[in-house]
C-alpha cells in the first residue's frame, strides 16, 4: 500500500536519537515538518519549557577498578562515596526496615516520584539502577517536579552483568560519579488541523510522540507511531471527513508526558470540544502482536474488537490505563484508544540504543496503520458520534493514582520555575 510505504520511509528517516533539548530532536522536527511542507499541509508549532540535560559519562570505582555506567538524566555533576546496599527492587523501598541513610542503593526496577521523595527524606546518598538482562543501558531521567524542587539524588545505570560484579561489594564502600548537566530546554509540539465537512470544531485528536530517550534511535518507540500519525494526517487532509480532527506529534513524552501535559494545560477551554483520542505509541516490529488499550467505556472496547474482526487483524484489546500521552486527556475525562505493537526485537530493546529500524517492516506497520485508519474513519464519519465521552470510575481512579505517583495534579501550567 502506498500509505504504508510513505509511513515506512518517514519512520526510517527519523530513526536516530531525538531526545528533547538536543540537535537530534531539532533534526526530527525538520524531517517531520518537511513531510508536511512537501504535501502542502499547514501545521503549527506549540512550544513549552522544561528541564533537559547535556549528557555525560558515569563510572563506579571498586578498589581501584572502574565500571562504566550511565548517569541518570536531569542531574548535575557528582562524585560521592558511600556504603553499597543491595535492596533487590526499588518498589520495595518503603518496606525496608534497616537504615538507608548515607547508603548507595543497588536494585532493579524504576522509581516513582513518591519513592524518590522517600529516599531523599531518608538521606539516601546515591542509587544504581540495574538494566534488564540481555539489554544495553536502559535510560532513566529525574522527573521535572523533582528537579524543580531540587530533590535530586545522584544516580547511575549499569548493565546487568556489571551489576553482578558490583554486588560482590555489598556492605562495602564504593565511589560513584557522573557528569551530566541540567539545562532549560524548549519542547515543540507539531499540530495539524483538519477541518471537517460539517465545519465544526475538531472533535477527535490523533497523536503519538516523536521524541526518544537518550541515545535511542527510537524506531518502534515511537518512530512507528509518528509515521502512522503523519501518513493519516496526509490522507485526511486530502479527503476531509465529516468531523474535524487534530493530529499532534508530541515532544517530551519520554520525560514525563510533557508535550501532552502542556497541550492540555494550554487548551483548557478547547478541551470540552474533544470527545475521543487515538494514541499510537510503539509500532513497526516485523514480528510481534497488535494491541489496543482502552481508557474508556465498553462502547470503545467493542468498537475496537469489531473493527479488528472486520479487517481480519488480530488485535489484543483490553481496558486499562497506558503510560503515554493519552493520560493527561484521560484525567480531563476524555477517553482514548491506545494502539501499539509489541513483541519483536526492536520493541524488546525500547529505550536502548538497539531500538533500530533494521527490525522494522511493512508487515509490522501495515496492520496498525489499517486498524488506526478504520477507527478514525468510523468515528470521524458516523452520523452520530459513536462513542461516549467518558472515562469510567474504575479507570479514572487508576489514572489519578498514576499521576499521584508522578507528582502531577493536572493543574500545573509551568514545567519549570
List the main descriptive attributes of the protein structure presented here.
417 residues, alpha/beta, Aminopeptidase, Glucose Oxidase, domain 1, 2 domains, 8-stranded mixed sheet, 12 helices, 15 strands, globular
Describe the structure.
There is one protein chain. By secondary structure, the chain is α/β, with parallel strands linked by helices. It has two domains: 2-53 and 184-406, Aminopeptidase, CATH 3.40.630.10; 57-179, Glucose Oxidase, domain 1 (3-Layer(bba) Sandwich), CATH 3.50.30.30. The protein has twelve helices and 15 strands. The protein has helices spanning 2-14, 23-38, 113-121, 144-148, 160-167, 219-238, 258-266, 298-311, 327-331, 345-348, 362-381, 393-406; strands at residues 44-54, 58-62, 65-71, 78-89, 103-108, 126-130, 155-158, 173-178, 181-194, 204-209, 245-250, 276-280, 289-295, 315-319, 336-342. The strands form two sheets. The protein has an eight-stranded mixed β-sheet, with helices on both faces. A seven-stranded mixed beta barrel has the order 2-3-7-6-5-4-8. Helix 8 (298-311) links the parallel strand 13 (289-295) and strand 14 (315-319). Helix 1 crosses helix 6 (219-238), helix 1 (2-14) crosses helix 11 (362-381) and helix 8 (298-311) packs across helix 11. The longest helix has 20 residues, at 219-238. The termini are far apart. The model has no long low-confidence stretch (mean pLDDT 96). Pfam families: Peptidase_M28. One of its GO terms (molecular function) is metalloexopeptidase activity. This is Peptidase M28 domain-containing protein. It comes from candidate division TA06 bacterium. Residues 189-364 form the Peptidase M28 domain.
Amino acid at each position: 500500500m502506498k500509505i504504508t510505504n510513505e509511513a515506512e520511509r518517514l519512520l526510517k528517516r527519523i530513526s536516530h536519537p531525538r531526545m528533547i533539548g538536543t540537535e537530534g530532536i531539532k533534526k526530527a522536527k525538520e524531517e517531520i515538518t518537511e513531510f508536511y511542507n512537501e504535501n502542502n499541509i499547514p501545521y503549527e508549532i506549540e512550544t513549552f519549557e522544561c528541564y533537559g540535560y547535556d549528557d555525560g559519562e558515569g563510572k563506579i570505582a571498586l578498589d581501584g577498578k572502574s565500571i562504566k555506567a550511565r548517569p541518570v538524566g536531569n542531574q548535575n555533576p557528582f562524585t560521592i562515596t558511600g556504603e553499597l546496599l543491595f535492596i533487590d527492587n526499588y518498589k520495595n523501598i518503603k518496606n525496608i526496615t534497616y537504615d538507608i541513610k548515607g547508603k548507595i542503593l543497588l536494585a532493579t526496577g524504576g522509581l516513582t516520584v513518591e519513592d524518590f521523595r522517600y529516599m531523599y527524606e531518608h538521606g539516601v546518598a546515591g542509587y544504581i539502577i540495574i538494566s534488564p538482562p540481555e539489554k544495553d543501558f536502559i535510560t532513566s531521567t529525574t522527573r521535572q517536579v523533582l528537579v524543580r524542587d531540587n530533590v535530586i539524588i545522584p544516580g547511575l545505570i549499569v548493565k546487568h552483568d556489571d551489576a553482578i560484579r558490583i554486588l560482590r561489594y555489598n556492605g562495602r564502600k564504593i565511589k560513584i560519579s557522573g557528569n551530566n548537566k541540567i539545562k532549560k530546554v524548549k519542547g515543540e509540539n507539531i499540530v495539524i488541523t483538519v477541518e471537517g465537512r460539517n465545519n465544526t470544531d475538531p472533535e477527535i485528536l490523533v497523536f503519538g510522540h516523536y521524541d526518544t530517550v537518550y541515545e535511542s534511535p527510537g524506531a518502534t518507540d515511537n518512530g512507528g507511531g509518528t509515521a502512522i500519525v503523519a501518513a493519516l494526517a496526509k490522507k485526511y487532509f486530502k479527503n476531509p471527513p465529516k468531523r474535524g480532527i487534530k493530529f499532534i506529534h508530541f515532544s517530551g513524552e519520554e520525560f514525563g508526558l510533557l508535550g501532552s501535559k502542556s497541550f492540555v494545560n494550554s487548551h483548557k477551554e478547547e478541551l470540552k470540544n474533544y470527545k475521543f483520542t487515538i494514541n499510537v505509541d510503539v509500532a513497526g516490529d516485523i514480528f510481534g502482536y497488535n494491541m489496543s488499550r482502552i481508557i474508556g467505556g465498553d462502547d470503545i472496547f467493542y468498537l475496537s474488537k469489531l473493527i479488528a474482526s472486520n479487517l481480519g487483524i488480530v488485535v489484543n484489546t483490553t481496558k486499562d490505563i497506558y503510560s503515554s500521552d493519552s493520560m493527561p486527556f484521560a484525567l480531563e475525562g476524555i477517553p482514548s484508544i491506545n494502539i501499539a505493537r509489541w513483541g519483536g526485537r526492536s520493541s524488546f530493546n525500547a529505550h536502548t540504543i538497539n531500538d533500530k529500524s533494521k527490525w522494522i517492516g511493512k508487515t509490522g506497520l501495515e496492520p496498525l496503520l489499517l486498524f488506526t485508519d478504520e477507527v478514525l474513519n468510523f468515528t470521524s464519519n458516523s452520523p452520530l458520534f459513536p462513542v461516549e465521552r467518558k472515562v469510567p470510575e474504575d479507570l479514572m481512579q487508576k489514572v489519578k493514582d498514576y499521576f499521584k505517583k508522578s507528582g502531577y495534579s493536572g493543574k500545573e501550567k509551568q514545567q519549570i520555575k
